[in-house]
Design brief:
The structure holds two protein chains of two kinds. Chain A is mainly α. Chain A contains nine helices and no strands. In chain A, α2 runs antiparallel to α3, α6 packs antiparallel against α7 and α7 packs across α9. The longest helix of chain A is centred in the first third of the chain and has 23 residues. In chain B, the strands form two sheets. In chain B, strands 1-2-3-6 form a four-stranded antiparallel sheet, covered by helices on one side. In chain B, strands 5-4-7-8 form a four-stranded antiparallel sheet, with no helix packed on it. Classes of the chains: A mainly alpha, B alpha+beta. Chains A and B meet through α1, α2, α3, α4 and α7 of A and α1, α3, α4, α5 and β5 of B.
Chain lengths: ~210, ~240
Amino acid sequence: MYATPIPRRNWRVPALPRPTVTFPELRVSPSSDAAQQRLIVQLRHGQEDALKELYDDLSGVTYRVCLRMLGMPEDAEEVLQDTFIRLADRADMYDPSRGSVKTFVLTIAHHLCLERLRTRRARPQRQQEREDDQAFDVPAPAARDPLDEALVQSALAGLPDADRALLEAMFFGGYTHAEITTRTGLPLGTVKSRLRRALLKLRERMLP
Amino acid sequence: MTRQPDRSSGDHPTELLPDYVLGSLGTVQAVNVETHLLSCAVCRAEVARLRDALFSLADDLPDMPVPEGSWEKIQARRNTVSAQPSFTQTPPTAPSRRLPIWPLAAAVALIVAVGGYLRLSPAQPGVTAQNSVQQWQQQGAKRLTLASKTGVPYGSMYVRSDGRALLVLNRQAAPGQVYQAWGRSASGPRAGVPTSLGLTGGTVLEVSWRGYDSVGVSTEPTGGSPAPTHPLGRTRLPEL
């Protein structure tokens, strides 16, 4: 059973003083994907130094994702370690035609984080926590609700709508479409179309 | 709303790919897309771009220093695990239902299908061309000439019916270069896509050819490459 939907007004972009912030540019990795692909090949062939180089390149972004998803530095660090241990074991599974090395590494981290979020969801909460959290059947992994946090970030980034906030709630918060629907009161079809629009917008900025 | 494949772009389900990446499709549509992806490099590339786009959300997160000592902890844990071989055989975790991980699943299937990638260290000390060839010939290996497209030989390949092959190159690779062997299958979802079989800084390389129709060799920078950059030629495998 899901919690009472959040009143729609709460989904409006908060009336924060809006700084002049443009759509964030993509960060340029210190190493190109081609160089990282070469490191994956080296790792496949047992060259241990390659793992360290990949760690140096990608541990920062991986840790940021883990911390954002899990909220707790200790958990994030554990998953960071798990990610690179798993990468070393599964370098054979990387296929350059199916995404960048960074996406491959972040996919591993993302799945590990989702596993932890599901475990947290399954864990019984204390009565007091239930009473404090109206949406007790939706995971509250971080100190701040990622859904609300995403909205605030959306506002700070100067985005015209909450599409991206929904995408971040799904991606970082680990919310299903149904959970987002319940929490926002938006119809499922609207949630899907907004997620799609947000993804295509991200896709646009990756074009040369 | 149920979207049908976009007929305006042939039979490619282009319109469904964003929803596929977002996990928004129903089971039937998702399976249809996955089936299509197995044989369509164009849509696989688009899915890769969409996935890269989705994960680019990470690029906008605020900087945060990685906790000190994490690398050392990883090394320590790997050393512990390597002392317990059974742990390294842990199967992949179940795929998430929120985001598709067909690239991983497909890779697992491929690895199972071809018997796994061969892990060879770049150098194989103690393996000489002469004693290896003699041994393989005694074992009834079939000898093939490795030659370029123009017919210039650059080595030999000894093929055994147990799925193993020994590549013997005529001369050492240039300084800073290695030989890298590649397997290709003529049909199936990975038709024509070279898969690395191993590399050597010397002149002898043992590989697993099972699952491939031809084996080729290229010269690559030390450490090898994800795809052949300077192919020397490839040789069709015999029926054994």
